[in-house]
Specification:
- The protein contains two helices and no strands.
- The protein has helices at about 1-30, 35-70.
- The radius of gyration is 18 Å and the shape is elongated.
- The protein starts with a helix and ends in a 5-residue tail after the last helix.
Length: about 80
Amino acid sequence: MKVLASLSGAIAAGFLCFVIFALVSKYQLAQVGYTPNQSDKLIDSFIVVVPFAAFGGGWLSLYIYRRHLTKNSNGC
């Protein structure tokens, strides 16, 4: 169950990053004076940021899962 909690948090964080970067990319394309170099920088930052966000999301999900288990345990 711990693995499932971590995996779901990592997937959710990765999906959230993807949505945010897609919206930023769409905003960039709509701007006057857009250059393809801007997209290259965005893609490079996406490649760097998403693994950290997925790791952080997995860790946060596991932390919340463990905290929920200890909070609801009856001491047995």
